[in-house]
């Protein structure tokens, strides 16, 4: 009986630490999906202070802005581009030790010089501010690249 509990524990741990499929990903009516009530998500389209971050302004074309976002992401660790279209970019960040997955989305609406961003943990309730810190790191890297273009 004891080995059975060990195997169930290992199996449960694998499921917990590898994450599940991305939920609420993509562009819907009005833009990115809203954040859940949990504090492990930030979005430039959120109305409440707990989840709200500022969008990223850019100069030039959407294509240039998307390329600068991708260049900023290339300077970061454990990031994978999942989906890319003319007006949308979805990437996954995977934590170093436990391989938790966070989804980060960028929306480049037409007729706007703003990039809307949403960063959310797939699992858990809190994130110790990781998603907010990450978006601010992306903002800093992107702003540096925008200054060079």
Q: Could you give me the name of the CATH homologous superfamily?
A: Kinase associated domain 1, KA1
What is the overall pLDDT average? Answer: 87
Distance between the termini: 64 Å
Q: Unreliable segments (pLDDT under 50, ≥5 consecutive)?
A: 4-21
Give the strand content. Answer: 25-35%
Q: Provide the structure class.
A: alpha+beta
Q: Which fold name corresponds to the CATH topology?
A: TATA-Binding Protein
List the domain count as a whole number.
1
Helices and strands, with pairings:
Blueprint (H helix, E strand, L loop, with lengths): L1 H17 L8 E2 L2 E2 L8 E3 L12 E2 L4 H13 L4 E7 L2 E7 L6 E7 L6 E8 L8 H19 L1
Antiparallel strand pairs: 1-2, 3-8, 4-8, 5-6, 6-7, 7-8
Give a short summary of the structure.
The protein has 149 residues and is an alpha+beta fold.
């Amino acid at each position: 009986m004891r080995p059975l509990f060990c195997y169930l524990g290992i199996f449960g741990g694998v499921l917990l630490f590898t994450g599940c499929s991305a939920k609420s990903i993509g562009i819907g009516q009005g833009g990115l999906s809203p954040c859940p009530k949990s504090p492990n998500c930030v979005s430039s389209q959120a109305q409440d202070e707990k989840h709200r971050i500022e969008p990223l302004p850019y100069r030039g074309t959407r294509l240039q802005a998307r390329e600068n976002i991708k260049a900023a992401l290339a300077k970061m660790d454990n990031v994978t581009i999942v989906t890319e279209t003319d007006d949308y970019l979805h990437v996954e960040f995977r934590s170093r030790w436990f391989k938790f997955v966070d989804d980060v989305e960028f929306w480049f609406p037409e007729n706007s010089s703003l990039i809307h961003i949403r960063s959310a943990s797939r699992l858990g309730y809190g994130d110790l501010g990781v998603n907010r810190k990450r978006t601010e790191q992306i903002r800093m890297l992107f702003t540096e690249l925008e200054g060079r273009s």
